[in-house]
Specification:
Blueprint (H helix, E strand, L loop, with lengths): L14 E11 L1 H8 L13 E9 L11 E4 L9 E5 L4 E2 L6 H19 L9 E4 L5 H12 L3 E5 L3 H9 L4 E3 L4 H8 L5 E6 L6 H6 L1 E9 L12 H6 L4 E3 L10 H17 L6 E6 L3 H9 L6 E5 L1
The structure holds NADPH dihydro-nicotinamide-adenine-dinucleotide phosphate.
The site of NADPH dihydro-nicotinamide-adenine-dinucleotide phosphate (NDP) has 30 residues, from helix 1, helix 2, helix 3 and helix 9.
Amino acid sequence: MRLEEIVVPDPGTGELLVEVAAAGVNYIDTYQRSGQYPTPLPFTLGKEAAGRVLAVGDGVTEFAEGDTVAWGHGEGAYAEHAIVRTAQAVRVPEGTDPQLAAAVMLQGMTAHYLVHSILPLAEGDTVLVHAGAGGVGLLLTQMLTRHGVRVLTTAGSPEKAELSRGAGASDVLDYEGFGPAARDLTEGRGLRAVFDGVGATTFDEGLAALAPRGTFVLFGAASGPVPPVDPQDLNSGGSLVLTRPSLAHFIADRAELEWRASEVLRAVASGDLDVRIGGTYPLADAATAHVDLEGRATTGKLLLLP
Ligand code: NDP
C-alpha cells in the first residue's frame, strides 16, 4: 500500500463526492490487498466510511451538499475524498458522531443480517461466535444476547476474553478444544449455530460441535480459506446446514440497506449498541493497521482518520 496525491475526482451521475471523516478497516481489505480476493490494480482500498457530502453528481436528488453520509460497501474509502454511489450511501442521523457511523456500517450491518436473516434464532438457543473480541464479534455478541440467545465465544487472550464477556458472552472458550467445551456447556446437545469468521483453523471442530439440524455460518477466513467440504459430512453430522453469506447480498435491495443501517445507527445513538474503537490510525499508517489486524493484535473496530 502506498499513499499518493491525486486530483480530487468529480462525482459522476448518481454519485457523491465525500470528505471522509473516518474510514473503517475491515478484514476484507486484507483479502483484497493480499490477492485472496483478486482485484484489478491499481486500486484504492476501503469499503466503509462516513463524511460530509461536498458535491453531488447529475441525477442525485436523495442527498445534498452538506449532508453527512455513511456507507459500508463502497470502494476507495482509504482517502481524504471518496466517491460513493447514492445506492450505497445512507444519511447519518443528526447528532451521531461520523466516526461511530463509519465504525458500524460494515461490521454492524453484518452482525445485523447474521442475527436476523440467516436462521430463525429463538430465546434460549446456544450459539458460538468465534473471535468474540473482534470487530464483528463484539457487535454480533451484543445483538445476539439482546435477542435472548446464549452466546459462547472464543478469544485469543485473557484481555480479549474480558472484552467478549463485557459484550455479553456467557462463556469464553480457548480455541484449543472449543468444540468439546461447547458440547459440555450444552449438556451434550451441541450448538444451534456456529458463527465462524476464522475459517481454516476452526471449521472442522465447529461443524462437529453442532446439534442435529444446527447451522454453520461460515462468514470469513481470518485464518485462511476452508478446504472443500463433502456434503455427506452435513448428513452424518445430523442434517446440518452450511451457509457462506456475504453482506453485499443482504443490502443489495435499497429497503433492506435502509432497514439494517437505520436499526444499527439507532442502536448506536441510543447506546444500546456499544461500539469499541480499538485503534485509530492516520491514513499514512494504513499498512500498520493491516499488520495489527492480521497479527491478531487488535480488538473492536479500527479506523483510519484522514
Ligand atoms: P476481527 O476484528 O474479528 O479480526 C480477526 C480476528 O480473528 C483476530 O483479531 C483474531 O481474534 C481472530 N483470528 C483467529 N485466528 C486468526 C488468524 N490465524 N489470523 C488472524 N486472525 C485470527 O476482524 P473483522 O471483524 O473485520 O472480521 C471478522 C471476520 O468476519 C473476517 O473473517 C471477515 O472477513 C469476516 N466478515 C465477513 C463479512 C461477510 O458478510 N461475510 C462481513 C464482515 C466481516 P483472536 O485473537 O481473538 O482469535
